[in-house]
Amino acid sequence: MTAPLTFSAEVANAKANGLPIVALESTIITHGMPFPQNLETARLVEKNVRDAGAVPATIALMDGQIHIGLEGDALERLAQTKDAKKISRADIAACLSMGWTGATTVAATMICAQLAGIHVFATGGIGGVHRGAELDFDISADLQELAQTAVTVVGAGAKAILDLPKTLEVLETLGVPVIGYGTDDLPAFWSRSAGLPAPLRMDTAAEIAAAHVMRGKLGLSGGQLVANPIPVADEIPSDQINPIIEAALADAKGISAKEVTPFLLRRIFDLTEGRSLTANISLVLNNARLAAAIAREIGAN
Ligand code: PSU
């Protein structure tokens, strides 16, 4: 029994020749950014991975297949699909068996990357423990996935809309290494610091790659979360973004489950008059470059 994987020619060639590959998710395209910036960003992310010496593999579910690398106009079609489903571990099999078009979250992209033999994945920011989770239990499936699937995920920390101290606690309980890249502070997506210490610190892609390889030697399940701070020029300092997040959260009353994160990202875009999107694009590109460097180092090990 084999998984229904369809590789783009570029990714198939990379696999055949042992070239470094970086997995990229698609929920950020369908649910994280408006059109046409979503499409422009997806293309730029792929370009940044290539320029940094690795091969991009954007992952999405279409026609009953897990697409590893989107060819031709597939990326453009996905970016304009209004009703793509947001797919996590719980929905991935149903989406494929029903033939729906599905955008993969961090959790689902990790599953697909592992099936495809890809070790490194770049995103914007992972999901986590939502504020008020002690009442509504809203905790992203991304955290459990990091605990069980051996992919190194590069993000700009967890999104600041979340309860970051609780997110860190859950990651620690689940045994997920959280590595600040070149920083002692946990980055908070739009800002470089959440005001919390990063549990681990590494300063080079080679160190992160060596830790990934060591986890494999130890037979540890689960991945690593690399928290890469947004470039200084594009950050929105926490004293500016926090009141906006509070306002967006107040507007989100009545929104639940999978809708929460996309709603908050859209609301924060409106309240910052687009500045949050500029920051989001910048941090994703930054993560793509670091992921490519890590993938190259893993290949060299
Ligand atoms: N990074 C971004 N924008 C996004 C996401 C990541 O810059 O929209 C997506 C990822 O797919 C992640 C999801 O898995 O947000 C988290 O959703 P939730 O909180 O519902 O688990």
Description:
The chain has 301 residues and is α/β, with parallel strands linked by helices. The chain has helices at 9-16, 27-32, 37-51, 74-79, 92-98, 106-115, 133-136, 141-148, 164-173, 205-218, 238-251, 260-271, 275-300; strands at residues 5-7, 21-24, 55-62, 65-68, 85-87, 102-104, 120-122, 152-155, 178-181, 200-202, 224-227. The protein has one domain (5-300): Indigoidine synthase fold (3-Layer(aba) Sandwich). Helix content is 47%, strand content 14%. A hairpin with a 2-residue loop joins strand 3 and strand 4. The protein is globular, with a radius of gyration of 18 Å. Pseudouridine-5'-monophosphate binds at residues 25, 27-28, 31-32, 105-106, 123-125, 127, 140, 142, 258, 261, 265, 280, 284. GO terms for molecular function: hydrolase activity, acting on glycosyl bonds; metal ion binding; pseudouridylate synthase activity.
Helix content: 40-55%
CATH superfamily: Indigoidine synthase domain
Bound ligand species: pseudouridine-5'-monophosphate
- Are there runs of 5+ residues with pLDDT below 50, and where? none
What is the correct CATH architecture?
A: 3-Layer(aba) Sandwich
Number of strands: 11
| CATH domain class name | Alpha Beta
Distance between the termini: 31 Å
Strand content: 5-15%
Largest sheet: 11 strands, mixed
Class from secondary-structure proportions:
alpha/beta
Which outline best applies?
Answer: globular
H/I helix tally: 13
Which H/E pattern describes the elements? EHEHHEEHEHEHEHHEHEEHEHHH
